Amino acid sequence: IRQKVRAIAHETDVAKVTILRVPDKPGIAASIFGPFGDAGIDIDIVLQNVSHDGTTDLSFTIAESHLPKARRMLGSVTRKVQAQGYTATAGVAKVTVIGSGLRGTPGIYAKIFQALADAGINIQMIATSEIHVTCIIDRPRVREAVRALHAAFELERI
Amino acid sequence: IRQKVRAIAHETDVAKVTILRVPDKPGIAASIFGPFGDAGIDIDIVLQNVSHDGTTDLSFTIAESHLPKARRMLGSVTRKVQAQGYTATAGVAKVTVIGSGLRGTPGIYAKIFQALADAGINIQMIATSEIHVTCIIDRPRVREAVRALHAAFELERI
Ligand SMILES: C[C@@H](O)[C@H](N)C(=O)O
Ligand SMILES: C[C@@H](O)[C@H](N)C(=O)O
Question: Does the beta carbon of B90 lie under 8 angstroms from any beta carbon of chain A?
Fold first, then answer.
């Protein structure tokens, strides 16, 4: 497993935004991100889990420095897609485990999450791809999180 | 924007699993994926959005061929973490937009989601990283989805 994980990255300038209970039907995601694209606000992670009762939450992360600008748009975007509301929270951080073939390595996710669990760090959001496992955590815990993951995967800290 | 997107990948051997209303506290994600790792079940995407009332859903995708084996474990895993239940659904597919610098290109997410919206395809789950935008959709729509994304980003279909 160790060879599969190559590096741990982190980002502290992160805020999370969630549009609550958006209708789960075609066109909604496009309607939300259109305005943010037009406003020139960089969206980092986009995350949507399965719906219940025809609605789901649609979350994304942005630089905390863009949060004031994003906040000015959130009311109208929420109304536009007929969602129930939104939350926008500063003070989080992104920790990313970078590797190859993370998918297809049974146990690697458990090892990543166990490292954070052992450090008592709560994982607020998770999104993965073939190469990245991204966790959103509280910003005060980011150094511990990076240290815990370096230790778990026996990586030298740079 | 076009240069940023390099390819569209898809996977049809996909089932989605959701552990419902897991307690949002340290150690829960590790407790869920430990057993699947031990059972040798490859987990592809892991997705978790923000919690409400102290709980959230934790979803993941696996090969549909592994669904029977996964199902045999889901009851005990659900009880172990004191979640409310689980769902396991075959017949979905994964469509992945691959590029560089997807983050930091305002409007690129809107363009991806608009292409699927214009084809009337509902996006069931979304997870992104710097290089991948992953959407889970109904399997019967996968060819249309890939075609729509190729067209939107003017990529030659191989
Ligand atoms: C929720 C949102 O993703 C919706 N399902 C859409 O396709 O746009
Ligand atoms: C829900 C789950 O991710 C939990 N927050 C954990 O840290 O394990």
Answer: no
